[in-house]
Amino acid sequence: MAFNKEKEALRNMILTFRVSELQMLLGFAGRNQSGKKTELQDRSLELLQLNSTPVQKRIRELFQSSQETQQAAMIPGANALQYSAAYAQMLGLAGFTTQQQGIPQAGRANPYAAQQAQQAAAFSAAYGTQPQQTKPIQANTQPVNVKFKQLPFYDIHGELLKPTSLVTQGSSRFQEAQFQFLLSPEQATNIASNRDIRMGSKLDYLYQIQLRFCLLDPSAEQGDEFPPSICVQVNGKMCTLPNPIPTNKPNVEPKRPPRPIHITPLCKLTPILNNTVSVKWAADYGKGWVVGIWLVEKLSSDQLLERLTSKGKRNSDFTRELIKTKLTDDEDGIATTNLKVTVSCPLGKMRMSMPCRPTTCDHLQCFDASLFLMMNEKKPTWTCPVCDSAAKYDDLMVDGYFEEVIKAPELPDEENEIILNQDGSWNPVPKDEEEERKKKEKEEEERKNAVVLDLSDDDDDSAPAPKPTGDAEPAPAPVPVDLPVLPPPPPAEIECIDIE
Question: Which of 118, 217, 397, 495 is the most buried (most CB within 10 A)?
């Protein structure tokens, strides 16, 4: 009897699943995950016939996770699992053991109480008729010595939550951790007083509360990376995360773009109330994660460009010596007398206004600093457009040598290529005289062909003569020309035929 009751409870759980949860269950069991929702439900219900303990455990985990998400959306700030367990305990104490019993008195004031009571009854049937109030599995959290990579477009003004580990606790796949932080009066004032509150604006904050995740690896600085199946709530409100990048690999969960999360609109901007951040994710055994929260100031590409110019520029003598080194005989004895480079940016294909390159690159070709910073402001990659190696902002320097070349009057406006000489000097690319001579000969040949074509058109007898217009003067009569008089042709011979 108890077995049938539990099986019916598992069946009811499957019927409440969404498409994504049905696909996760079928993927866990190694079944086909494609098709309509009704087809996915039928395949999932067939799994109950296997009487598999791991499958039943997976159904309970998915039901528990979906219940938390739905309850959190219905009642912001409430712990979904505790709320359902409390209702189940009330039903058990009141003697309600099935879904057909009445609804508690509180259900009249709560429009979602009926659905919550039904879910609580299914939960109690699967886990016991009188479950106790239990909390979600809390992950083991403690501060760790992990450093995040610095983000050039953000200045850090305060550490609200030190980098803290998110280590899987227990055998449950879904983990949860909660953190609290409090703003100081100065921090709350900076955030509230530095934002655009004009009509029609998006309420953009200059000072932002920034949430970041990375791998638990203290051996080196870590870039942003999200845990799998992550869900973040700030003060009971769901936080918007970057959309996952689609993947064609089977059984591989799409990853989200690595970037920080701007949670300022969800926070309490007051120094007297705590802010609570709840993080839920799927355990990835063998991997640990780190979370941290900072108060940062957002910068623009113009501000970074100003800082880059104020840092100074690389001396032109350094680049000149680098040119001499590159054009000197190498170990193989191959001499290079000159080298052609361009002063147009490889990104915008236009002449550079502020040539720069990273100090970690050994090539001479530069790129425009302003355009490079604007592109990374939209999509931060920080990759050198010349050699595709890492180009950190702190390693960028304006090149004084190429800046002098661009401003030199010897360089024509229409010319973007120069010749670097072995002594470190430069010259504009000379015009090829042979190419100019061939070009003139070609033009002369085309001109001659055009004249011959005109003469042949005039001699064509089939071409119609132009008709005179009313205002045009009549053409002069042709001048008679004396031609020699030819003798008349001989008379034709006539042959007579007698019919008789």
Answer: 397
